[in-house]
Specification:
Shape: globular
Keywords: Ribonucleoprotein, Ribosomal protein, RNA-binding, rRNA-binding
Strand order of the largest sheet: 1-2-3-5-4
Number of domains: 1
Distance between the termini: 24 Å
CATH architecture: Beta Barrel
CATH class: Mainly Beta
InterPro entries: NA-bd_OB-fold (IPR012340), Ribosomal_uS17 (IPR000266), Ribosomal_uS17_bact/chlr (IPR019984), Ribosomal_uS17_CS (IPR019979)
Number of helices: 0
Subunit structure: Part of the 30S ribosomal subunit.
Function: One of the primary rRNA binding proteins, it binds specifically to the 5'-end of 16S ribosomal RNA.
Protein name: Small ribosomal subunit protein uS17
Structural class: mainly beta
Length: 77
């Protein structure tokens, strides 16, 4: 089974080896049937610390690295 990949923007780089990536997507409202933008934040592992705030990155699912980290930064777009 392939691992999920998401595209998002780094919103925080204050932690060591961890980046917070905001992924936004559209979802249809159940009652009003209008498309609504949803934002989700994911903590992703960045071993070398090469990505910073504002970078557009690709993250991939991985094994649990810590309590909150289940994603790894793959590359920059």
């Amino acid at each position: 089974m392939p691992k999920r990949r998401l595209i998002g923007i780094v919103v925080s780089d204050k932690m060591e080896k961890t980046r917070v990536v905001e992924v936004s997507r559209f979802k249809q409202h159940p009652k009003y049937l209008r498309r609504v933008r949803i934002h989700e934040n994911y903590k992703a592992h960045d071993e070398k610390g090469e990505y910073h705030v504002g970078d557009k990155v690709v993250i991939e699912e991985s094994r649990p690295i810590s309590r909150d980290k289940r994603w790894v930064v793959i590359g920059k777009l």
